[in-house]
Every structure is written in C-alpha cells, then in structure tokens.
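Hi support team,

I'm filing this because I wasn't sure whether my run with LLP finished correctly. The job status page said complete, but I'd like someone to confirm that the output block is well-formed before I use it downstream. Pasting the exact inputs I used:
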Amino acid sequence: MDWFDYRDGQLFCEDVNVDELAARVGTPLYLYSQRTLEHHYDALNRAFAPLNPLLCYSIKSCGNINLIRLLANRGAGMDIVSGGELYRAQQAGVPTNKIVYAGVGKTDSEIVDALEAGIHSFNIESEAEFENIAAIAAATGATGRAMLRVNPDVADPNTHAKTTTGARETKFGVDIDRAVRFFERYSAHQHLKLTGIHLHIGSPIYSPEPYVRAIRRALVLIDDLRSRGSTIDTLNIGGGYAADYESGASPTYEDYAAAIVPLLQDQNLSIIMEPGRTISGNAGILITRVQYIKTGGTKIFVIVDAGMHHLVRPAMYDAFHFIWPTHVVPDHVPAQRSADMPNQGLDAVEVVGPICETGDVLAAHRALPPVARGDLLAVYTAGAYGMTMVSNYNAMPRPAEVLVSSDRATLIRRRETYDDLVAPERDPADV
Ligand code: LLP
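And here is everything the job wrote out:
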C-alpha cells in the first residue's frame, strides 16, 4: 500500500507531480510519502495492539531525522545499532527510554553515551559484551537493562544469505543452549539488569512461520529460566517484516499478527518489536534521470544518474526493485509492480548507473516502455536500506531527500556538494 500513483500517465507522490518536483530539486532524488510511512506504522501498531508492544523503528532502514520525528510523534521508540543512530534519535527528540540498542561491536564510548542517555535496554550479543557494559556501568555509577540476544537456530530459506541471522552460525547473539548458563552467571548483576530475551532472525521474512518457530523456542527458554528463579519481563521479537517489492508480495500485518499474537498473549511479558523496512520500504522511491542509451552486443543499456552508490541492494543482494518511467502513455501505466509483468511488446533493457564497476546494475533484462535521454525513472520500494546505504564512491555527492505530505514537498536533506566531499580533508594536522 502506498501513495505513488499515475494520473493521466504522470506519476504523483500523494498530490505532488514527480516530474515538476524533479525539475526543481534535481536528480537523483529520494522521495518519501508521509502518508505511506504513517500508514504502515499505524497499521502494524493496530494489528499487534492486543500485545501493546513498544514498536522500536529500526533507524538503519531509513534514518533521516525528519522521518524519525514523524514516527516518534506517533509514539514510536527506536532500534539503534550505533552512537550515530543514538545521536539521530536524540536530534529527532525521541524519548531515550524508548530506545533499544543492538549490534555486535558496541564501543566503550558508545556504551557510555547510551548509559548516560538512559536508553530502554541493550541487546547483548556475547558474554564479553555483557561484562564490558556491566563494568562500564559499575565504573560510572550508572544502571542499565539488558536483553540477551539468542540464536533460535531458525534459518528462513527465502532470506538472502547476506541478511539471514537466525541460524546457529552467525556473528549475532549467542546459541540458545548457552542462554541458561548466561543467566546463571549474570542475572544478579547490580548495574546491568538482565531481564529479557531478544530475537532477530533475519530480514525480510516473507512468512509468519519462522517467527512462530523462533518465538516457541524462546518461550520454552523463558519458562526454563523462570523456573530457575530468573526474572524475565520482556521479549523483543525483532524486525524483518517484509515490504512489498512486488505488488502484494508480503504477508499482511494481520497475517503476521494472527500467527504471533496468540503465542504471546498471557505470557506476562512486555513485547518489543523492531520493524524497519516494513514501515519505510514502500514509503520511498528513488528518482533518476536517463543520461544515455546505448547498445552492447544484443543488449540495450539505459544509463541513469543513480547507481549502486545510491541503491546498493540490487548489486549486493540481487534484490528486485520495480523500475518504471514517471511519465508514460496511458497503455503503459503499470497495473501492478512485478518481476513477471506480461511483456506488452516492450524491449528488455539493462538499467545501469554511472559507476565504473560492471556490477553497477539497478535492473538486468527488464521490460521497460520506450525511454529517451532526459526521461525520469522511478525505482520503487527504495525507502528502506536505500539512502542509509549510500556511498560517495567515484566522488559522487549523496542525493537530496524530499518528504511529501498532500500537495506540500519539503526538502529534508539537501543534495551534497563537491565541497562536502573534500571539507574533512582540507586541514591536515599533526597527530
Ligand atoms: N533488528 C535488528 C537486530 C536488525 O539487525 C535489523 C536489521 C532490524 C531489526 C530491522 O530489520 P527490518 O525490519 O528492516 O527488515 N541491508 C539489508 C538489510 C539488513 C538488515 C540488518 N538488520 C537489505 O537491504 O535488505
């Protein structure tokens, strides 16, 4: 569900004409629909309302402080993985007691900042990390809360190898069979209270079933821990809920909730969720302009001004993003966004970026209506892990970001300049 629609062959973001906007702001451009973002947050919240969860939006999926602020205003907490994300959350005015902090490599200074901020909890990834955070808390006189991230050993066969995390041999969390010993060793700590379990099994997870398996295992563990005298008051069930990369591709929130809610009702647990892409994914598109069209052997290359430096997902995970011109004849208005759209007599092309890498491909062998130099293409479902994974490779400035609400468009991040690229290098200093 989103508010990117064609009117008489012209793409609109809510009530804003995308071509007119791109003429004003330039390309490449990340464009977000506020209504779409808020719709997904609200709908997920409604579906899981029986559990009254704390929804901690995963900042790594799309971290512009103006978007974070919108979600915080609706009551969202945040899932962070670095001091930089903590800073973003604070700049957006997120209440720090709604922030949960995951990640395998938290540094001492990041830990000090998070303890000082009074975050909700640390998701603990190893024995060594627990001991370090506890020692820092004791030394600074702070107290913190901790959830042990366990590996339930459920691998989702549909998740790309680079984004699966629930299997036994990953760098994340500790094996579930080490958990009892972990609690025996650490649950009496005065400065770091270990009172919960954290799961995150990968992303995206295209069916409720892996969650069910993981949560069942966690509940068995929680029973065991409670019977041994530990206080377990919280279960964080992580993120990974899918976005619609193709029309109707992901389960509905009601589907996920129907499987998950009954397991967790009446367990006397506070529930935390860490959704990222399911909220931000469909709320953003990447607008890029066609620079050149050329042939190479039998292939037709459409060369655009965005590439793997602006959206790395196709190059990194072979991810599918639907791509379509923003202005088309009525016959070419797409009825749905899908990989196997009936080819309406359209040529298959390679949509590639300007980067000097053969792998700089946004779409391979993709049917596209005829396009010419200067036309705009929209790359859909680019809101999650789009802008946050942008790089400056080939000394390309980062794109601008625009937020649309009804007929109003707001520049929420200006396009980087060449000066932004070299500014940190200007004043070499002895060290
Ligand atoms: N919680 C934890 C502990 C995570 O590691 C992640 C994502 C999330 C929550 C949010 O997952 P989401 O709901 O957004 O799926 N760059 C990859 C995805 C990497 C995910 C990393 N962790 C991609 O573009 O597909």
